[in-house]
Every structure is written in structure tokens, then in C-alpha cells.
Write a structure and sequence with these properties.
By secondary structure, this protein is of the alpha/beta class. The protein has a single domain, classed as Nitrilase/N-carbamoyl-D-aminoacid amidohydrolase, CATH 3.60.110. Helix content is 25%, strand content 28%. The protein contains 6 helices and 14 strands. The strands form 3 sheets. Strands 5-4-3-2-1-14 form a 6-stranded mixed beta sheet. Strand 1, helix 1 and strand 2 form a beta-alpha-beta unit. The longest helix has 15 residues, at 175-189. The radius of gyration is 17 Å and the shape is globular.
Length: 258
Amino acid sequence: MKIYAIQLGLSSEDKSYNFNAVKELLLECTIEPNSLIVLPEMFGTGFNLNLSETILGEPSLTEGFLSDLASSQRSWVVGGTVVPATERGWGINRALILNPSGEKVRHYDKIHPMQSLGEDKVHQKGANIELINIEGFEACPFICFDLRFPEIFRRATRLGATLFVVIACWPQSRIEHWSTLLRARAIENQAYVVGVNAIGYGSGIEYGGHSVVIDPKGKILASTQQEQGVLESRINLDELTRWRKEFPVLSQMLPEWS
């Protein structure tokens, strides 16, 4: 399956600006049907905790844009947004998953809002790991700070995950952690990992970029640094299956320790 990771310069809180930037970047690509297109966390606004801006017009605004993108490119799409919560007037940091027909087939809500930035005071945390079959891969989305918690990745692996999609607005100041943890999640779970980060600035944060596609052995298949663009790569389920059979680490997991 072909992967198209969109590393976007989120320098504006104007959703239409960022939506148009996505369209312009994809004009430079010839997208294979039934591929996977991935956009960063909260790609319409960047990491913004002002709910009056982030949830404005949601969930229909971002979902509508992603639906048009998926159907026009005949591909799967994963992208981040903030939607209104049903309680307390809060928001939810959410990853939307749409199929090549443009239908929303699943969503994942960020399990670990980042307390040090006050995200836990405005975003209701999620409670469920979500898996969705994408062209034979059991794909599991996570969002940014979730990457620091290997137990949820291991739980997803026990449920059958073969592909992790991590979308983020990860800061430049800790970008080495981003790169290292993504490789660790791939190696320890013998799974493909697609990490898609933003670049630019928002809410006093410089986003670090360094989007990447990693194979189940931890090999970097494609990567970028801090430039805006579309990172392309290809992943192969047969190669993952062979590696898990050749080196059957996962069969030795002890349930009492995970």
C-alpha cells in the first residue's frame, strides 16, 4: 500500500488556509487509488486550545473536507481535528478515518491529553483503542503525546494491529524523542509506523516536522526534516508477516506483564 504523509506548515489558525495548503501540496502528486493519505494532528488550526476557534463549524467542516479529499483521490484518509464534546462544553482531540468513498468509518479520541500544556483542562480524554482494516492492514491511530505510552501500543498489538498511524504537532525542542519513540514502537511491536508531524508555529510552539515511515524491523523507509511537502513510501503486509514468523517475539509476550 502506498503512503502519502502530508507534512504541513501550520502557521495560521485559519482552517481554510490550511485546507487549501493540503490541496496545493497534493496537486504535485499522482495519488494511487486505495492508498493512505495522512495529515497531522489538528491540521486545521495547529495545536490550539482556544475552543472558540477549534470547534467552530465542527465536526462537519473538517469531516467534509476530508470526505471530499478521500473520494476525489479514491484513497483512505486519516486527519486530526477537534470536535465538541457532549459534556462540560469541552472539545475532543480526534483522528478521523475515511474510506476511499469518502465515508467516515471510524474515529479515535486522544487518550492522553497533554497536562503540561493544559490540554487536559479543555479536551476530554478518549477511552478506546480503535483498529480499522485498511487494505489488509489492521491500522491503529494514535495522537501525539500518546506516543510516550508504550502500553497502549502493546494493547493494540494484542488486538491485531500491524500498522500504527501517529499524527502530531510535536515540538522541535523534543524532536529527538519523537524520532526515537516512533522507531521503538515499530521494533517492539513488529509493526509499520507512520508518524506525521506538522511544521511552523502555533500557541508558542515550534513544530518539529521529521515525519517518517518505519518498517517492522525499525528501518526508516522514508523521512523528511522541516520542509513542507508530501512524504511518499510503500508498505508491504507480506514483509511484516514474514518478519513476525522469522523472529516470533510477539508470541513470547507474557499476559501478566502487559
